[in-house]
Each structure stands twice: as structure tokens, then as C-alpha cells.
Amino acid sequence: MSTRRSPLAMALLSLVGEAPMHAYRMQQLIKERHKDDVVNVAQRNSVYQTIDRLLRDGLIAVLETSREENRPERTVYELTGAGRETLLQWMRVMLSTPAREFPEFPAALAFLPVLPPAEARAALEERLTAVEARVSALEAELGGAAKFLPRVFLVETDYQVAVLRAEAEYVRGLIEDLRTEQVTWDYRL
């Protein structure tokens, strides 16, 4: 049986490969390390569902279950041999092969004429402001972290900055086109 690959599943396998741990600690580490910028752990339930799938497929195993005083029961998981091999294979594929992804922004661009040109321009200007603010925040984070961490631990943030800079440049050009070309379209819903 082949387990469905996902960024969250890859992250969880990676964490239990570092050391056995319980689900809540996995979610905490993802957030503490700012990996929640690239792995969605906003819904705790998704972490538990992914753990169930990894457990069912034999990629992780229960190391122990314990309960401390008034706390809920905690199950600690460890990586299996099959989990280690699967993680390594996923990493090779995820690094080497571009995936078909369906993010919202390109989808919205595909249907841009749904909005009147002035509204589209205003929405894009708002996005540009948000993207520029995000670039500034990530650059500040990189600057601080680069003082004590090797670059290999910061590559996803460095990548995000590069992608966001390219997006900002693209959006600036599109806004300018919408401003200067007096674009009109007649799209009726």
C-alpha cells in the first residue's frame, strides 16, 4: 500500500525521525520552527488524521501511551523502517519533480474579468501591499536567524522571499497595465 504524500505527512515523518514524540509536540515544533508557513497545521484535527494514516500504513508506530495527572492521554510515536524509506523517497520526489498545485491566486487571475477593471486593480494593489509587507517580515526573520543558523535551515524562507519578490514584480506590472491600457471587459454574472 502506498501512502498518499503530503507536506504535512512529510513534516510529521521528519519530526518523529528526529525523536519519538506525541501529536501535540509535533504541531508545536512546526509552529515554533515557523514551518507553519509551508505546512498547514492550522487545524489540529488534520495532524491527528495524518498521524492515523501514517500509523495505519506502518510508517510510524506507537512507542508508548501515558497519562499525567489531569491531562489527556498522550501517545508517543516513532518512525518505522518503512517510514524512514518513505520519507527519503518523498523528499527525493518533492525536491526533484514539480507538482501540479492549484493555489488560489493563479485561479483568481484566470477569471480576472469577473471583476470590473477598477475593482481588479484595487484588489491587486491591496495584494501588492500585503506581499511587500510579507517580504519585509521574512527578510527581517532571515536577517536575525542567519546570525546563528546555517543557510540550509533557512532555505524555505529564502525561497518564499524569492517567490514573493517575483509575485510583487508581476502584480506591479499587471496593475500598471490595468491603469494605463484602459482595459474594459464585459463579463456578466
Can you give a write-up of this model?
60% of the residues lie in helices and 8% in strands. The chain has a 3-stranded antiparallel sheet with strand order 1-3-2. It has helices at 7-18, 23-32, 44-56, 81-96, 104-110, 117-145, 155-180, and strands spanning 21-22, 60-66, 74-79. It is elongated, with a radius of gyration of 21 Å. It has 7 helices and 3 strands; from the N terminus they run αβααββαααα. A hairpin with a 7-residue loop joins strand 2 and strand 3 (74-79). With 189 residues, the protein is mainly alpha-helical. The N and C termini lie far apart (46 Å).
Index terms:
three-stranded antiparallel sheet; mainly alpha; 60% helix; 189 residues; elongated; single chain
How would you summarize the topology of this molecule?
Elements: H1 7-18, E1 21-22, H2 23-32, H3 44-56, E2 60-66, E3 74-79, H4 81-96, H5 104-110, H6 117-145, H7 155-180
